[in-house]
Amino acid sequence: MTATNAKLLGIFREEANERLDRVVATLLAIDAGESPAGATDALFRDLHSLKGGAGLLGLDELREVAHAAEELLSDVRAAKGPVPAELAQPLLVVADVMRRAVAGEEGGAEGALAALRGVNVAATVSEPPQPADAAAGEPQAPVARIEGSIRVPAAKVDRVLDTVGGAVLHQRTLGHLLGAQVDDRVGEALDRGEVLLEELQDATIELRALPLAAITGQLPRYVRDLAVANGKDVELALHGVETQLDRTILDGLSDTLGHLLRNAIAHGIESPDERAAAGKRARGRVELRAEQRGDRVAIEVVDDGRGVSAELLREAGQNGSLVDLLARPGFSTADQVDGVAGRGVGLDAVKAHVESLGGSLEAHSEPGRGTSITLLLPLTLAVLHVLLVERLGQVLGLPLARVEEVVTVEDTTALGGRRSIALRGESIPLGDLAVALGGGGELPPHPPALVVTHAGRTVALACDRLVGEESVIVKTLGPLLGRRPGYLGGAILGDGRIALIVDPAVAVARGVGAGGSGGAGAEAVATPQQAASRVLVVDDQFTVRELQRSILEAAGYQVLTANDGRDALQQLTADADIDLVVTDLEMPEMGGLELLRRVREDASLASLPVVVVTSLAGEEDRRRGLEAGADAYVTKDRFDQRAMLDTVERLIGR
Amino acid sequence: MGSPGPTAPARGPGPSGVHVHLSLGEERYALPVGEVLSIADAEDVAPVLGAPPSVLGLRALDGQLLPVFRLAVVLGVADAEPRRIVVVAHGGRTAGLAVDDVLDVAELAQERDESAESDHLRGSVLMDGTLVGLIDLAAVLATLETELAA
After folding, report:
1. What percent of chain B has pLDDT over 90?
2. Which of B57, B60, B67 is opposite residue A480, by nearest beta carbon?
3. Which among A218, A228, A305, A610 is placed 20 to 30 Å from A58, CA to CA?
């Protein structure tokens, strides 16, 4: 094929796909029982054009199929009725075949022609002509045509962007070389040059942007097919699809969106019966919403289905976030894996893809109400504003948008071998940027630390010193180094140095390391005397139970929990191996004092160590507890966790 | 597999037989010139935290980032101090191999063919009384790829 023909074919393909998108959209509407004005004419025109273009380029199979469909539409036009709903299905099959033919796959013509042969137009066009369709001078369905635009191969735009990037770099180098020894006019000219180039760069980056609509054309059809395959009734609503995204990001997004839609329909939306029983509309609703938020684009897939189970939400609450749970490799919320959703409905592939682009994933769910998954993507991969720091002689950059703030580490506290800093009343784990990347070493005293959040988790990452802020073009590390976890890429700074851009997700996940990481000496925590002593935590409040559980488990104890005194007694009599009880006082059913009395009365439990937890102001509680036979009391104040651990260790040892 | 006569051309690829001769410590190696893009100085190589010892770091080259590896580490020999980088390309991958010195770009005039002793050499030749290892670039890059993917 000659170069001209190849180019023509490319253009034809793009146009053909646009036409097919329109055709399918119209057919879906007809299939749903609607009667869009001018549908017959619009369909005829598109099919006619497809036939013509196919003929010109020698795509015989496509031409044949388009011709047959065009003839059918011609008959419909002649019968002067609207396109009958029964025709939608066979025509959708034909549209599928045509799309494949456009893409170069052959062999589907037979099936398409067979589908059309079975249709008798005269018999199906039975309704009298609708006024809307038959009236002369009726407005024609608009043919989407953007005036004044040109098609430019993406590679050309990339080349312009590279060259502009080089010019920006050159400008900076020039600035550095001239240094401070320039007079005002030269300095001003240099600044002006930089501003002009940055504008040029922004404008060029925008050339690479396309609206999300460029890839959402086939989604309504896809959703319809998925719904049918799963025996569900689902509608898809698209919002904000004119939102622009960098072409490179858009490229890989189709699969991801498909995956999320599959999840929503196969596992989120319930069957019509289930929905009716739950008081919902029989038709489920899936929404795809896109909007720009600052320097990110948020793409949300929301369904009004069954949401995740309360059990799962609880588990998620304990272990980080819902996203972390759903993105565990191999995770599945379905009891069985089925062909539609594939092996597991986990989000691990989605999360990996989004993070490889420098974005992040969020998930929210309400049992019984629905689930929403949000992709947060950078506006552009090309230029990134980074915060530059130095660690162990290496210049590292973190995307500025992902750094919440920068603090100087003054005082730290340690628990379970991990250090944390206090920031406005919150305790934040302190890690080391070097550890996040697989290295390690001494930190200077009072180092600067970057506070970074990812997937609901916040850590402070220490480094040697701050270097500054810069807008850089992120370059790939290449096929060899590019797969190292932890780095999004590298950048050449204005002064010629190379900075490595750190992946915030990896930094947060690995920066804190196993217990006892970073900094000069982690304090040892009181370890249990025997291997895995078992502690029963009794409290009617979920959060308090879980907080105490995490503290005790971090210190190496095995923890059981009970909601109140009665529950606790049942467990104590059933399980002889509990070494210590930590109990609240005020609980429904049976409070801590009553529990104590029963324990002390029972010969087999009489010498069981019991620790009573009181609130700060509970002097009265303390006295009563001790009188009832408590071995010790600790306060609920969270900064006294050391006291609780010391007490537990002391009592268990006896 | 008998060796051709003493005046036969080198076993290496390429009709020209021109090779880039380099040194690692006391040892000598050679690469066919067709596989070498350019030669640069081993200055301003930024280290990469957490990378294996074979990675010397990253260097800017023509506005792109070039990964630089210590050839000595891949071959399992000792180098003195890498001062030069041989920029190579193979199978869509571009990389810099840091070596002590680049001695010459010349024909591979050898006195006798020797057999290959290592996974990363295609063979060796004797030149002026010194053994010169013929580097198998594909094998070197494959090793690096495997190590880095781990």
Report:
1. 37
2. B67
3. A218
What does the pLDDT average to over A483-493?
A: 82
DSSP character at residue A259: H
Which residue from A650, A653, A616, A652 is spatially nearest to A634, judged by alpha carbons? A616
Instruction: Tell me the per-residue pLDDT of A103-154, one tens digit each, with 9 for 90 and over.
Output: 877 777 777 777 777 665 555 444 444 444 444 444 445 455 445 667 777 7
Burial of A279 (0-12, 13-18, 19+ CB in 10 A): exposed
Which residue type sits at A170? H
Nearest-neighbour CA in chain A from B129: distance (Å)? 37
Give the A-side interface with B, CB within 8 Å.
162, 165-166, 169, 391-396, 434, 437-439, 475-481, 483-484, 486-487, 489-490, 492, 496-500
Residues 57-76 of B with CB under 8 A from A: 57-60, 63-67
Q: What is the pLDDT of residue A138?
A: 45
- Asked if B59 contacts B85 with a C-beta cutoff of 8 angstroms, the reply is yes
How many Cα neighbours within 13 Å face the side chain of A544? 20
Q: What contacts 24+ positions apart, CB below 8 Å, involve A614-618?
A: A614/A585, A618/A585
Place of tokens 């060029």: A204
Give the whole-angstrom CA distance, residue B82 versus residue B94. 19
Whether the predicted pLDDT of A341 surpasses 60: no
Query: Which of A498, A501, A510 best tests the B interface by mutation, with the highest count of B CBs <10 A?
Result: A498
Burial B38-63 (b: 16+ CB within 10 A, else e): eebebeebbbbbbbeebbbbbbbbee
| Region at A84 (left for phi over 0; alpha for psi -120 to 50; beta for the rest) | beta
**What is the pLDDT confidence band of residue B2, given thresholds at 50, 70 and 90?**
very low
Which residues in chain A are contacts of B149 at CB distance < 8 A?
A: 483
| Mean per-residue pLDDT of chain B | 82
In contact, B93 and B53? CB cutoff 8 Å: no
Does A340 have pLDDT greater than 50? no
More confident residue, A202 or A450: A450
Average pLDDT over residues A607-617: 77
Nearest to A491 by CA among A385, A379, A401, A354: A385
Task: Give the separation between CA A24 and CA A389, rounded to whole angstroms.
Answer: 53
User: Which of A162, A497, A500 has its CB closest to that of B48?
Assistant: A500
Q: DSSP letter for A455, please.
A: T
Q: Whole-angstrom Cα distance, residue A478 to residue A489?
A: 9
Query: Which residues of chain B have a CB within 8 Å of the CB of A162?
Result: 63
Q: Name the DSSP letter for residue A640.
A: G
What is the phi/psi pair of residue A43, to 5°? -65, -45
3-state helix, strand, coil in chain B (%, to 5): 15, 45, 40
Question: Contact A460/A431 with Cβ under 8 angstroms?
Answer: yes
Give the per-residue SS3 of A146-206. Answer: CCCCCCCCHHHHHHHHHHHHHHHHHHHHHHHHHCCCCCHHHHHHHHHHHHHHHHHHHHHHH
Q: Which residues contact A578 (CB under 8 A, 6 or more apart)?
A: A534, A535, A536, A560, A571, A572, A608
Strands A465-473 and B112-114: unpaired
Q: Which residues in B lie closer than 8 A to residue A498 (C-beta atoms)?
A: 44, 46, 57-60, 65
Q: What is the DSSP letter of A104?
A: T
What is this model's ipTM?
0.81
C-alpha span between A84 and A358 (Å, rounded): 48
**pTM for the complete prediction?**
0.45
DSSP state of B46: B
- Comparing CA positions, the residue from A378, A374, A373 lying closest to residue A359 is A378
